[in-house]
Amino acid sequence: MALTTQAAGPVGLPAGSAPQPTRRRRLGLPPMTAKLATGLIISGAIVLFGLLGPFVVQDPARVDDIGLTGPSGAHLMGTTQTGQDVLAQLAYATRGSLTIGAIVGVLTLLLSGFFGVVGAYAGGWVDEFFSLCTNIMLVIPGLPLVIVISSYVPDKSLWLVALVLSLTGWAGSARVLRGYTLSLRNRDYVLASRVAGEKRWRILAVEILPNLIPLLASQVVFAVIFAILGEAGLAYLGLGASGSISWGTMLYYAQNGLALRLGAWWWFVPPGLLLALFGAALSLINFSIDEIINPKLRNQTRSARRGWVMSRKQLETAKEATL
């Protein structure tokens, strides 16, 4: 009589069963870490404030005859030198800065993807021409060019500022995407698709682009950070978009109103704090995406943390050495 055997599963699981992947892994989501959770919570709260805040505050251009006053029941964040509510300005400024970041992020994604991914996959003279354009934009200083363009345009719209920031910030992302696409172009599964007679656009859309999603997400997050900080710098210099309000314009008017000298911290601290918090939150998200793209970076971070933890015996030895 033949005996049938069934392979035993891992410890704690019935025979013949295998550990099931988690729901996040099945959905293709990145693993949740402390850095990623912190970045998502802070950035999500700021985005919600920018989306919903303007609907519950008063008109930021409304002028009251009360002058520069501190936080109170009538004005939770105080007023400016002309009696404008700081909370109302902060809500509209948050929406304006987030709008700039979103527009620049999308435009940078399109430009860097076209010049980096499409050019590298096409190869030949197309890749050479796209690389030449990328290299030219890389050597052009971004901030001075933005200042020159903004200073020569009298009426600057929000879209014009976003377009200028996008044109000066896509080249670095295109360079990174080109290098990674060149390595993917010579993978076995891509060559097999070519041999099988697949169309070039389908190979690019199905075989290459899905492997670039983490890198594209990282480049978009970096572009949003660059856009918000760049627009804040332009607005602080008085070169921001006309007729719009952002964190940079709030800091610009606070400087002109001598808020620091008068001790009106409620005027310049909120926009500066939101600018720093949002930049830090996006940086934490970007670091988490980098660990997803490069697993060696995650392993090195864990190894370094293990090295920081000293055993009790090592602590006693260190104490004896210091006595």
Can you give a write-up of this model?
By secondary structure, the chain is mostly helical. It has 14 helices and no strands. The chain has a single domain (30-68, 75-294), classed as MetI-like fold. Helix 2 crosses helix 12, helix 3 crosses helix 10 and helix 10 (247-256) runs antiparallel to helix 12. The model is unreliable at 1-19 (pLDDT under 50).
CATH level 1 name: Mainly Alpha
The H-level CATH homologous superfamily, spelled out, is MetI-like
Approximate shape = globular
Radius of gyration: 26 Å
Instruction: Supply the number of helical segments.
Output: 14
Distance between the amino and carboxyl termini: 76 Å
| Chain-averaged pLDDT | 79
Low-confidence stretches: 1-19
CATH topology: MetI-like fold
Main β-sheet, in a few words? Answer: none
DSSP strand count:
0
Percentage of residues in helical conformation: 55-70%
Looking at the overall shape, the CATH architecture is Orthogonal Bundle
Secondary-structure element order, N to C: HHHHHHHHHHHHHH
Oligomer state of the chains in this structure: single chain
Class computed from helices, strands and strand pairing: mainly alpha
Number of domains: 1
Strand proportion, as a percent range, falls in under 5%
